[in-house]
Amino acid sequence: MTDLKLDTTDIQLLNALQDNASQTNQALAERVNLSAPTCLRRIKRLRDSGLIEREIVVLNADKMAAAMGHGLTALVEITLDQQGTEQQLAFESKAVKESAVQQCYRVSPGPDFVLVVHVRDMPAYLALAQRLFTSDANVRNVKAFFSVKRAKFEPKLPLAL
After folding, report:
1. Considering the domain boundaries, does residue 160 fall inside one?
2. pTM as predicted
């Protein structure tokens, strides 16, 4: 956690960066009515505080699938046989190491984990399932839902001013 207090300008900067992290510092400063050096200092403070975790490029999964071949997205519910802290950490550690696992959530109530998985095709999903679920004696139940259409994908956190 951070003790950093955010003001309106910080929120404006974070919103602007979530919209487009590749814009120049000058463009960003103009957008939020700051001088370029002040803007740079504020962004550095937000990064150093850990509020800005990292900056990435978000690819269009449908267009990438068309360009590279078939793509398959699955939402997978996992229930462990034993839910102790050690067992949860062990499964979580295994899941987050898989590049096909885009998101991993511990949830309650219901299953212990929900994973968002993206693989090339069904054989790739089967291989992932065997590595993550079948070979793990502590996995009691797996329920997978396969996406037929993505209606919305927004990694942006809603920040009110």
Report:
1. no
2. 0.85
